[in-house]
Every structure is written in structure tokens, then in C-alpha cells.
Amino acid sequence: MVTGGATGLGRASANALRNAGCHVIIAGRRHDVLESAASELGAEAIVCDVIDVDAISGLFAEVEERHGKLDILVNAAGLNRRAPALEATPEDWDFVNDVNSRGTFFCCQAAARIMQRAGYGRIVNIGSMASEIGIIHASAYAAAKGGVKLATMTMAAEWAPLCINVNAVLPGWFKTELTEKLFEDDAWRNRVLARIPKGRGGVPDEVGNMVLFLVSPLADYVTGEAIRVDGGALAW
User: Catalytic pick from 106, 141, 173, 174?
Assistant: First the structure.
């Protein structure tokens, strides 16, 4: 299962898993976008808005009813509302945190309840470089993604005895639906690229490859980690 699997880093993750032979289900809130992506990826699609905890419960109940188990969950559903901290509204704060942090946690919880019955599970949460540093005009987003990192570590510690691994991937600057307008700003793009030792933004498949590693047998002893995929941006 990949939430937010129709676009951006979620789609790249779904594609990596599908190419590795997984039966992939993608979930998202936009029916038309979801169905189109599912057709192109060769995936199953279920509409769900992760801001709604009841909808999350229904999503995972449907997965278990259809397939009897769930081996892997990738939480890639996320969004941002950019605003200076002095201008951020309670509505913006709640919306960004409800999707990125609250939605991620309750998807993890619902998945783990299924996984514990099989005695096996792999969960990967898509965080951000904002899980570790402040991002100008993204206070709500940084708070949410910081929460994703710490919740990942906590769940990993609690669920390791259940043979459920929980890790996070922290992407740096990738051009997706969330950031494409920023990348179109020459001054912003040049300033950001100057901070990345690799000298370029990331390609979504590079996140998909890390997700694939974390759910593979190669990472059986890896849990509670938040792994940067940022071209070295936070290394200096």
C-alpha cells in the first residue's frame, strides 16, 4: 500500500515496488488522478483522504478483506501551505499537520494492526529535510515532518517485537507537484542548488530506490532510522 501513490514521490515508490514484483495498491483522494496512475502503474486503486481517520480505518479494512494481509505500507500522502510564520492561520496549521503527521500516524496504526497478525511488516514514512531543519515559510510543514520522524522512531521501538520494521526517508529538494513552482524561480533554484554537494535536485526514482531497500530483506535489521536522500545537502 502506498498512500499518495498517484503522484510525486509516492508514485515513484509505487513504481519501484511494482517493478520488484509487488502487488501494489495506491491510495489517494483524487479519483481521476488515482485511477489514471493505477492504470499506468499496473496497480490497484482505492480512494481515501487520510485527513479522515474513519476513512483510513475503512481503507485498511478493505485491503485486509481483499487480500487477507498487508506486507508493506509506504506513507507518501503529504502537502504544504507555504506562508510566513507571522501570517500562518490555525486552519493552515491544522490542515498541514492533519495530513502529514496525523494521517501518517493513523495509517501506520491501522497497518500495524493487520501486520501483527501475520508477524511481519515493513512501514516506510516519507519525511523531509524539514524533519531535521527549519524551512522558511513552512513552519506547519516542518512541525508535521519533524513529528513524522519522531513518531517513526517511537513506533519502531514499540513494534520491533512484532517483527514490524518502521523507517523514514527524508528527501531533500525534489521537483514534484509540491515544489515545481519553486523550481521555476531561477533565483530560488540557483540558491538551493548551491547548497547541494551533488549540484542538482533529486529524481523521484531515487526515493523509490531507498524505499525498496528498506522493505527488502537487505534491511531486515534496520528499524527506527530516518535516512536522508538529499544529495549531501545536510552534510555541511
Answer: 141
Domain hosting residue 180, numbered range: 2-229
Query: What is each CA distance from 59 to 3, 75, 95, 174, 213, in whole angstroms?
Result: 10, 13, 20, 28, 25
Phi-psi sector, 4: left (phi>0), alpha (psi -120 to 50), beta: left
The answer to whether the CB of 184 falls within 8 A of the CB of 212 is no
Each residue of 24-71: pLDDT tens digit?
999 999 999 999 999 999 999 999 999 999 999 999 999 999 999 999
Of 80, 195, 192, nearest to 143 by C-alpha is 80
Q: How far is it, in rounded angstroms, from Cα 116 to Cα 24?
A: 20
- pTM, two decimals, is 0.95
- The pLDDT of residue 183 is 87
Helix (H, G, I), strand (E, B) or coil at 205: helix
CATH number of the domain that 177 lies in? 3.40.50.720
Q: What φ, ψ does residue 151 adopt, rounded to 5°?
A: -65, -40
pLDDT, tens digit (0-9, with 9 covering 90-100), for 102-129: 999 999 999 999 999 999 999 999 999 9
CA distance 154 to 152: 5
Residue 107 within a domain: yes
Q: 234 in a domain, yes or no?
A: no
CA distance 105 to 111: 10
Q: For this structure, is 141 an active site residue?
A: yes
Q: Kindly report, residue by residue over 119-177, the tens digit of the pLDDT.
A: 999 999 999 999 999 999 999 999 999 999 999 999 999 999 999 999 999 999 998 87
